[in-house]
Amino acid sequence: MGSGEDTPGGTGGGVGGIVRGAVLKALVVFGGVILIRRLRRSTTRWDHARAVADALSGEKFSREQARQDPGNYFNLRMLTCPATEMVDGSGVLYFEQAFWRAPEKPFRQRFYMVKPCPKEMKCDVE
User: Fold this and answer.
1) How do residues 56-102 score in pLDDT, each as one tens digit?
2) What string of DSSP letters covers the chain?
3) Whole domain around residue 92: which residue ranges?
4) Are residues 82 and 49 located together in one domain of the fold?
5) Are 30 and 51 within one domain?
6) N or C: which end of the chain has fewer CB within 10 A?
7) Membrane spanning segments where (predicted)?
C-alpha cells in the first residue's frame, strides 16, 4: 500500500475521496440554487386566478351528495373548460350542468370570467 491509495480503515484521502467530495459539494450548491429560486418565485394575483381556473376546469359529479340525500339532490354532471382569454389576461370558462344520464342535453350553460381580485381585497387560493 503506497501513498495516495485508499486504506480500509484510514482517512481515505485518495482520488475516490476527492471525487466524492467534489460531487457532494456540487450537489449541495445545485440544491441551494434550486431552493433559492423557489423561495424567490413570487405568486402574483394572476397566479391565483390561474389556480382558480385550473381548479374549476374539468368534469365533476354530485354523485356522493345525491347518494347521501337523494330526496334533495340529483346526480348532476358539471363540465367546465377554458373558452378564451380576454385582452386583459382574464380567463373565460365555459360551464354547463346536465343530468348524468343525459350529458348531451345540458340544462344550464354559463360563461365565467376568472380574473384577479382587486388589491384592496384579500384573496387566498390554496
Assistant:
1) 999 999 999 999 999 999 899 999 999 998 888 889 999 999 998 99
2) --TTS--TTS---SHHHHHHHHHHHHHHHHHHHHHHHHHHPPP-HHHHHHHHHHHH-EEEE-HHHHHH-TTT---EEEEEEEEEE-TTS-EEEEEEEEETT-TTS-SEEEEEEE-PPPTTS-----
3) 45-114
4) yes
5) no
6) C
7) 18-36
